[in-house]
C-alpha cells in the first residue's frame, strides 16, 4: 500500500505592494496551523518517505513549520512546477519522482482541491464532503492505494483521511 499526502500550504499573509505572489510569506496563524498538522501526522504515524514541495515561499515555510529535525529535510525536493502546473501536472511531478512509498506534495489550490476531488471519490465520505466545501489552508488529504507509487497515474484511490488544523 502507498499513500499520497496532498498538503495545501498554510495561511499566508497578503502580498505587499510590488510583491510577487510567489514570495508571499506565512502569517503567524499559518505557522501555528502547519505546526499542528505536523504534530498530528507524527502522532498518527503518517510519515511520508518522500516530500515534493512547491518552491513558493509560503510552501517552503509550511514545510519548515512541519519539519522537526526528524529526517524530513533529507527527503524533500523543492520545485517551481508545483506553483505553476495544474492538477494533472501534480500527478506527473509525483510519477516522475520514481519514488515508491508514501509521498507528500506540498502545494497550492485549486490544484490540490481538484486532485483530491478527482482521486478521493471512494473511502471516507465525511472527508470527501469537507474537501468539496473547499480545501482549506494547512489541510492534508491522505489517499491510499495498493501498489507502488510508480503506478500513480493508473490506480484506484481511496480517501483515507482529511486533516484540518481547526479539528486538532
TrEMBL record:
Origin, by domain of life?
Bacteria
| Name of the molecule in the record | Histidine phosphatase family protein
Q: Which organism is it from?
A: Ahrensia kielensis
Amino acid at each position: 500500500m502507498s499513500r499520497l499526502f496532498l498538503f495545501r500550504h498554510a495561511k499566508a499573509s497578503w502580498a505587499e505592494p510590488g510583491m510577487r505572489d510567489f514570495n508571499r510569506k506565512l502569517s503567524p496563524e499559518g505557522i501555528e496551523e502547519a505546526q499542528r498538522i505536523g504534530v498530528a501526522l507524527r502522532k498518527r504515524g503518517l510519515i511520508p518517505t518522500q516530500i515534493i514541495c512547491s518552491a513558493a515561499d509560503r510552501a517552503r515555510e509550511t514545510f519548515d513549520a512541519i519539519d522537526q529535525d526528524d529526517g524530513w529535510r533529507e527527503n524533500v525536493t523543492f520545485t517551481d512546477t508545483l506553483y505553476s502546473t495544474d492538477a494533472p501536472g501534480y500527478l506527473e511531478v509525483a510519477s516522475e519522482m520514481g519514488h515508491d512509498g508514501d509521498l507528500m506534495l506540498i502545494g497550492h489550490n485549486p490544484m490540490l482541491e481538484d486532485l483530491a476531488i478527482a482521486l478521493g471519490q471512494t473511502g471516507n465520505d465525511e472527508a470527501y464532503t469537507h474537501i468539496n466545501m473547499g480545501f482549506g489552508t494547512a489541510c492534508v488529504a491522505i489517499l491510499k492505494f495498493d501498489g507502488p507509487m510508480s503506478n500513480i497515474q493508473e490506480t484506484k484511490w481511496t480517501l483515507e483521511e482529511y486533516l484540518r488544523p481547526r479539528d486538532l
